[in-house]
Amino acid sequence: MSKKLDLSNFEKKLEVRNITKDDIDQILEMQKVCFPNMVPWKREQLESHLRIFPEGQFCVEYDGEIIGSCSSLIVNFDEYDDKHTWDDITDGGYITNHNPEGFNLYGIEVMVDPEYRGMKIGRRLYEARKELARELNLKSIIIGGRIPNYHKFKDQYSPREYVEEVSSQNIYDPVLTFQIMNGFNLMRINPGYLPDDRQSLKYATLMEWNNIDYHPKTKRHFKTAYPVRITVIQYMMKSIESFEEFAKQVEYYVDVAYDFGSDFAVFPEIFTTQLMSFLEEKVPAKAIRKLSEYTEEYIELFTNLAVRYNVNIIGGSHFVEEDDHIYNIAYLFRRDGTIEKQYKIHVTPNEKKWWGIQPGDSVKVFDTDCGKIAIQICYDIQFPELSRYAVDQGANIIFVPFCTDDRQGYLRVRYCAQARAVENQVYTVIAGTVGNLTQVENMDIQYAQSGIFTPSDFEFARDGIVGECPPNIETVVVGDVDLEILRRQRRSGTVRQLHDRRRDLFEVKYRNLEGN
């Protein structure tokens, strides 16, 4: 009697899924086989795709091996020149120009391992893109397709004539024929699209698949503005008698931000040290431990204020005890009641000497209802790598709570914040303390001139300053920053620092970014 067959011995597993970091090595090796005469992806480019638009990156896995992949981003295609190149549409392969509010999914590469062609792998990847376009309610998919057989016919046909012959099925082209069979229609032919594509003589066919399930929404339109209003509190450090007195001062300023219709209210670094004025502890290290006992009350206060006044609050920073160590932590209190935190990465010599503050090791970028933001506490803004990383992760605004006791220290913060705004085409906001705490050791004097800064170009404020407080008085500054102008300037400004940096010459690598 024959045994029952174990069908699992015959099964093969083929899966279309999103790419993960663990797939990158296989994809890089596969590309060498698929496109041996073209410049391959760099690891950092694929990592950038996964950071910025992970749902748009697909692969096909067959019995544990990656045999096909594709990459894409979302754009407003009408904003790009008719003769755009692959570098233009992908921002040099890093897709930092990805626009989640765009109308078109743009496919930038499809590849299938030659050993597995004939298994409809490319079709599966195209179907995954189409399904994504339907899920995201995108108007169409656009691709810049190679015409790799054109070099064989260059003496016989012009690029247009060659494309017509392929469309009429008189000539077979492995890419163009495939795209036509998958429902893509020719829009135009772009010269110089891929400089290293010698087979296509640098030409590309711009093709489009229209999503018939697309439903226009009235709220989706070309934005001329996306203003975000910010209230920066230049907070007066003065003696108080209780936490309740501190809470009243804080609520007053949150109310001011609410009255101005602000999206963010920003408090300074370690302004909660004002509580030390009634703690009656003269030894700085011990006073900090006592101060950290107010952490829960501080968090409850700001959470309630953010929800009640409908304002996202950058709650300055506060000294927090964790695992018997003291950290300088800035909190984001969203107006929906959720909370995030950013540890200070670089601790000043003064903080180490007087309070024994420990550094954090994680650079965070936070989602808000006004886009992605980052927080860099005082000294951190003086290290340009952190801002570069935050912007690469999508940050449009970097908030900088600071506390400095003299003009020189303040100017270090200010100049670096303005430099980061220019270098990274990002908005920066600094909020500092003023006044005196004469009875508190190491917090006796303060100096600040808080402000909101922009990149330097025609569409921004003339001197790169949206607004600033007068120096050394208790006040606020309120200003609007426009995220739509920022997005457009990153793509087509007089200078484009994000686009033009020489990634072929230098790069910044980060370690231990998954810590606290």
UniProtKB/TrEMBL annotation:
Keywords: Hydrolase. InterPro entries: Acyl_CoA_acyltransferase, C-N_Hydrolase, C-N_Hydrolase_sf, GNAT_dom, UPF0012_CS. GO terms for molecular function: hydrolase activity. It holds the Pfam family Acetyltransf_1. Residues 228-483 form the CN hydrolase domain. Residues 14-212 form the N-acetyltransferase domain. CDD domains: NAT_SF, nitrilase_Rim1_like. The keyword Hydrolase applies. Belongs to the carbon-nitrogen hydrolase superfamily. NIT1/NIT2 family. PANTHER family: HYDROLASE YHCX (PTHR23088:SF50), NITRILASE-RELATED (PTHR23088). This is Bifunctional GNAT family N-acetyltransferase/carbon-nitrogen hydrolase family protein. The lineage of its organism: Bacteria, Bacillati, Bacillota, Bacilli, Bacillales.
